């Protein structure tokens, strides 16, 4: 069982979005509130979480403190933990213990749980550093609790054990980070110590806050003198203990900024082969402390890259441990000197960005293959004295990508555990930020922002986002405009009640996002997730921004703001009082209600009350017998029989027939209850009731209907048909083949509305009871508040939304995703936008997927995957959560060509065989199993044409000559 995952009653009918929502669940005996109280108790206890000291002998015996292990047996002495700590470990997999010698190596590495133990150890160390010892506040003085020499020896043995394994190539970043926290006779994490000490002092001495922010965001060696000057100027105001704390900080900073001692590196080189020693020594031979910051960075960077690219070739665990220690030592020096490297020309700025991107690859923030894909673009400056605005924007896009991918690497490794800890310890939120700011991504982000500002000035395209710093890191994803209350969400989004008139800024969009006015995200997810497609469809403005940008916007939380994103991606965000008259006119009531459409009721054939085989349905039946998922997949089955599974369809008519049954507890049928609800809503409108009052009444009634549908008895003739069609379609009785139950309403894939992901799809359901209950859940899902709110932005007759269900067996694909047959935010009309993740259901629920723009003769990486968890579909039914790493791309060149070939056939055959006049792009869901392509869905790709053609949105994008050439020797 994974760390604090809920005890789910029915894994067989989990939806993908629920599975990946990681909703934390605690027993009544250990709620987050109780853990908070325990933490406060440990802080006050003289022994903290420790219980008593004991001897742990090598023969397995445990002895009292004065009953030493015999000399011929040997052993170590350390504290044990209180029963409460052990209970948290045993029952909830929360590990607050900080004694390493307590652990077996394999247990601590914890590979089955995505290395949760080692990550928790790092977070606990962080909490100790920022909260005066955290639960060890007083316990750290409990004599004999921990022996430093035993901890050091354990650390060395642990890493030699880990590095002797064959499955560590994907964990380079995690290993390198953990070495900064786990004692092993290597380097301590002075950078974190410096930030933590300055943070604690700033909380006590308010006037020190500006200096602390400088140390946190842009550390330089001259900060040491700044701190000394502050202490001298404020000596009379500081207490004795505060003065001592400032001396400690100054000492830490002095140690941190000490020049690198190459002799310490030479000692570690002795563990390498002669060729490796020679290669690294040659690269280091040019280094000396008299060099400029730029020269130091450029000499050390190739050493780090050599270690990273040759890591698997180091011939022993000891050599690999030495290589990682050298890399960390060099990274510290590079980080310091990068801050001091101030480019004077555009060419030098491009050179610095190129070098720092290389270092990001060397430190594991991005993978080597990712760096290889973007390096040629970053190095255009090496072969030219001039570059066009287009060329510079290519560099900006790729270098900005490196910053984002680096931040997401940290989050991919630690977010799951941090979010768990945040439920009972909010200070854990700072751990990820601390790791990002201690990496080269910090200065790379500053440099990229500088390049963005330069390009903006030259091309006259600027963002206007309040008074946010580094606005070049903000970019629009979906065009549109909005006005509403700005809500900046820091941390978890799990318990937010999203409102349709608000603009939200958060780390990443939830897969179950309700309609909102606007979105800004740090992690955009991917361009073709359900949330992104709905946002494009409805003209909801959506932009990506950095974590720093989010932090800058916190001051506007709760204020009414105007927000706009142009078709070319520039962004405006301003307070209500700064809106122009033209911007105010955009929000008239007439305009807001002008997009309503009507469900084409006259086309629905509700008299079809028998289950349909897929071969008896075609694309022309969409909206008549079933929804477009089923109709189009049936059409695909006839066109590409080897690439589509067999299945059957439960049409609209069967659902509608069940609605005529009496509704329990009501003097009416389900259908009468539904239609009476909407009739009453119309009465309330005529009575001038408020929109919120009408919504509250409607959602309350439809929630009751949803619950009733989930509990209804299915007709006996329908269950008999169900059993028969299982045997016909899958050659097994019901209950032996796990299937997907895919919702498919008549309010999807219309020309004006996509409806992507609004209703329930159940994964890999197997038993007959689960299948029957799952059908009712799918039927009920159109009446969830989220589904209703999205639809009602467009619908005039929402009571005529009927669900059909597509029943197909799951394919336990290796990876899956979405292909949109046009360039979305990059590329041209005939390009492909591809987003794939590992496992089933890939890319559709806002995952940070591997995303590419694929042209006829080009394959551009837009972003790599940073989704560590994925869904596997066992034959036993239900879903399994597995983990992956990112050292290899998901899609191979062979896969890309297979997708190109399939799209070519779809573009030709779909119009021919459906008789459709549709010639626009398609949105296709597919997956690969052993390199064979499987098609799961195809539908028209719908964008909000009104948003893209808005006169206002086009007007806020200045015209620019992208072919204008810029001299690279231009001074900054």
Automatic annotation (TrEMBL):
It catalyses: pyruvate + ATP + H2O = phosphoenolpyruvate + AMP + phosphate + 2 H(+). Its cofactor is Mg(2+). InterPro entries: ATP_grasp_subdomain_1, PEP_synth, PPDK_AMP/ATP-bd. It is an enzyme of class 2 (transferase). It comes from the Bacteria. The keyword Magnesium applies. Keywords: ATP-binding, Kinase, Magnesium, Metal-binding, Nucleotide-binding, Transferase. GO terms for molecular function: ATP binding; metal ion binding; pyruvate, water dikinase activity. Pathway: Carbohydrate biosynthesis; gluconeogenesis. Residues 625-951 form the Pyruvate phosphate dikinase AMP/ATP-binding domain. The keyword rRNA-binding does not apply. Its EC number is 2.7.9.2. Belongs to the PEP-utilizing enzyme family. Catalyzes the phosphorylation of pyruvate to phosphoenolpyruvate. This is Phosphoenolpyruvate synthase. It comes from Algibacter mikhailovii.
